[in-house]
Amino acid sequence: MRNLRWLGTALLAAGLAIGTAGPVSGEPAGTTDITRLTVAKNMLDRAAATRPESVTGWYVEPADRSLVVSVHGSADGVAEWAANQGAGTIEVEHVAEAPRLVWDLISGQEIHSGQIKCTLGFNAFSGASRVILSAGHCISVASSWSGVGGYIGETGGFSFPGNDFGFISVQSPDAESTPLVDRYSAGSDVTITGHTTPTVGMSVCTSSPVGGWQCGPVTGINQTVCYPQGCINGLISVSMCAAPGSSGAPVVTNPGAGTTVRAVGLVSGSSGNCSSGGTTWVQPIAEALNMYGVTLYTG
Known about the structure:
The protein has 299 residues and is an alpha+beta fold. 16% of the residues lie in helices and 44% in strands. The protein has helices spanning 2-13, 31-46, 78-84, 136-139, 285-292, and strands spanning 55-61, 66-71, 91-94, 103-107, 110-113, 116-119, 122-126, 129-134, 144-147, 150-159, 165-170, 175-181, 190-195, 203-208, 212-227, 230-238, 250-253, 260-273, 277-284, 295-296. It has an eight-stranded antiparallel beta sheet with strand order 6-5-9-10-11-8-7-20. It has a six-stranded antiparallel barrel with strand order 14-15-16-19-18-17. A hairpin with a 3-residue loop joins strand 18 (260-273) and strand 19 (277-284). The longest helix is centred in the first third of the chain and has 16 residues, at 31-46.
């Protein structure tokens, strides 16, 4: 009996009562609880489409060994919903804001308004106000604009003809302004560090969803080009093509093997085609920045 009493005392000292099963296969204490909670979370995952509108998510909290359901607003019916899925007891966590999707505004990507498709030129700002700069002939014919991630904002102003630039006022809190330029299949995004006035012979590049990333030399500056809608003064000519849909596309310095560029201007129009070459005319960016009193996003 003395040996049995000693054994019982030793087991109790180790936190185990005689006749009570301990962790299996050397698992740490609490492992079984976490496994059970993970199974319960998976049940909620499968029932995500039926969740109450106020439910914003759920997760297993290992420290408390609990299944937490996040709620924005009323928790009415949440516990019942979880129980009906077989998840058992939950803890309700009230959150101040509901999650939202966030997406980037990147130069060279598509912007559209109904059937009108153009290209995001550059992101800029003045104080807390954010804008997108693009071709004036695009912005002048539409009011509400969207991009690859959804709604962006409304037309703010434009100068066309005479010039060919305009701006969209960014109103969506989900759209994040960036200093990036998409190079599509040519490589990873490059970062805008400022702007510059080009010289003849300088290599510049443009980016658009229809033409991808293309580069060519500057062949002229301060040129006047007349379209059916009117004449544009002070344009830059570049030996590269621009396909329909690339209006407003960013034109930047050639990064070579680097990762940074400077803004040169916005694609205005072109002649020729992308099979046989051609000329692209570019609206210098400095004039738009000065007229609207905005600063480029840089990195």
